[in-house]
Write a structure and sequence with these properties.
Distance between the termini: 48 Å
CATH superfamily of the largest domain: Fe-S cluster assembly (FSCA)
Shape: globular
CATH architecture of the largest domain: 2-Layer Sandwich
Helix content: 40-55%
Pfam families: BON (PF04972)
CATH topology of the largest domain: GMP Synthetase, Chain A, domain 3
CATH class of the largest domain: Alpha Beta
Radius of gyration: 18 Å
Number of helices: 6
Organism: Pseudomonas flexibilis
InterPro entries: BON_dom, Lipoprotein_DolP, Transpt-assoc_nodulatn_dom_bac
Structural class: alpha/beta
Keywords: Signal
Number of strands: 7
Protein name: Osmotically-inducible protein OsmY, contains BON domain
Length: 177
């Protein structure tokens, strides 16, 4: 029986990368499948949540769901949260949907740039476990998610605060201490 060296390299790399974070491969895979399930449930809850008048961004980290974006009415915001809570595997929902028109393409582009700049700054800052932190930016608001100590959360927040263009930071960490 011959083994493909490429498969062995891939498996080794996967094991090494798993050791870099504090979540198992199973948790990471669960989160990847959870995001589209939650978004689908939200869009099924009300057609207005799937319409161009709403922008719902779903992010999962260790079963914790962040709902970000914009919707035109408060009842839609509430319906989105209720729908997300009904999905199997969801541990907690942070509903940060804003009641307003969806962000422009320019704002979304700026958000992507902000996220990249924050992640890059975290990578070069000692004491910030960037592999344990997910950065999501929506309409200039930066959401920080992850499983960290309080000191690491404070360091990550300080890094994000020093990036020009950040309007507000929302910490959604799970603390290990």
């Amino acid at each position: 029986m011959t083994r493909n060296p490429l498969i062995l390299v891939f498996l080794t790399l996967a094991l090494v990368l798993t050791g870099c974070g504090n979540r198992s491969i199973g948790n990471k895979i669960d989160d990847q499948f959870l995001e589209p399930k939650v978004l689908s449930r939200i869009q099924d809850a009300n057609p207005d949540l799937a319409a161009p008048t709403s922008r719902v961004v779903v992010t999962a980290y260790n079963g914790v769901i962040l709902l970000a974006g914009q919707t035109p009415r408060a009842e839609l915001r509430d319906q989105a949260e209720q729908a997300a809570r009904l999905v199997v595997g969801v541990k907690k929902v942070h509903n940060e949907l804003q009641i307003q028109q969806p962000a422009s393409a320019l704002a979304r582009s700026n958000d992507s740039l902000l996220t990249t700049r924050i992640k890059s700054s975290m990578l070069v800052t000692s004491g910030v476990p960037s592999s344990h932190i997910k950065v999501v930016t929506e309409n200039g608001i930066v959401y920080l998610m992850g499983i960290v100590t309080r000191a690491q959360a404070n360091q990550a927040t300080a890094v994000a605060q020093n990036v020009s263009g950040v309007q507000r930071i929302v910490r959604l960490f799970q603390y290990t201490d």
